Amino acid sequence: MKPVFCTIVPPHILDRLAQSEDPAVHEPARRTLEHDSLHRTRRRVVALRTTAAEAAPAALSDKPQRTIFDAHHQETTPGTKVHSETDGPSKDATVNRANTALGATFDFYLKAYGRHSVDNAGLPLNATVHYGQNYDNAFWDGTQMVFGDGDGRLFGDFTISVDVIGHELTHGVTQYTANLEYYGQSGALNESVSDVFGSLIKQYALGQTADQADWLIGQGLLGPTIHGVALRSMKAPGTAYDDPQLGKDPQPATMDDYVRTSRDNGGVHTNSGIPNHAFYLVATGLGGHAWERAGKIWYATLTGGELASDADFAEFARLTAATARSLFGEGDEVQAVLKAWSQVGVPTS
Fold it and tell me: Measuring CA to CA, which of 96, 157, 246, 317 is 20 to 30 A from 85?
């Protein structure tokens, strides 16, 4: 197992901000980029810690085991313990939001798919809040969640969006299942799977049907002066923001606009728009609660053991069609999957 350093804000956004002439814009972005680059060099240490965790899994429980730590604006983890599972609400709203979202993610995976925490073996869910100074990101480090407070101008507190927290924890689910390599199309699938289940966690918490959902990732996270609604849109990739400081959302919706680049591990945060849109089309095509059919197909594909770690879009598409057939037979589900992948230009055979 090879955990990767996965952040919610794509490097291309931070790169753009780092070039600003305004110190209030470029200084937080540059610090965040420097921090994120440093953490990407520490994956071997995390891999050793992950192996140790696998050797002694926690006892299974239908209740989460959450612990929240406070970094006190230092770049250290886990920090000072400030909230445990048996504690009542904190006076710190950030702590409460983090705790609630960890619980929402745990409940979703357990009740929708019978999965016990990130590793399916009851892994405790730990999170560090108030990380760094004006740190414009949140990430899964292979063992826990970490949240920055944002700079207050471009980005708000990173505990605001439950889908962001669900997204990052799902990187842990992927780490313990298909372990998709974080480069090129397999990396874009890694990002897309996190967006899919991040959105489903939000929909499940709100009791929304597919047509009621906003299909946005990070809605409410952008600052008040930013021209945009979220970090990404699964419904309409490429439309989440168009701002003088952030630039324009570069995500493609179909293979016609696939981005070939060596940056961001081969464009993992950009090209994830294609499988994201495919899932949106499947979910809205089937209707109802998206986690019940579309989500079940994606989850079974991710965890079924047949998905290669270096899978490309075509392999994932083929497997989702085969999974739909296996779960539901020859019916609406298979047709919805085949139609969606065809619409985004990815072959299923």
Answer: 157
